[in-house]
Amino acid sequence: MRLKDRVAIVTGAASGIGAASAVAMAREGARVLVVDLDEAGAKRVVEQIEKAGGHAAAARADVTRAADNQAIVEQAMSRWGRLDVFFANAGVPQWKTDLEEVDEKVFDQIFGVNVKGVWLGAKYAMAVMKRQRRGVFLITSSTSAIRPRPGGQTYAASKGAVITFAKALALEAAPYGVRVVAIAPVATHTPMLPTFMNRQAVDAESLQRYESTVPLGRLNQPEDLAATAVFLASDDAAMITGSCVEVDGGRCI
Question: 155 catalytic, yes or no?
Answer without folding.
Answer: yes
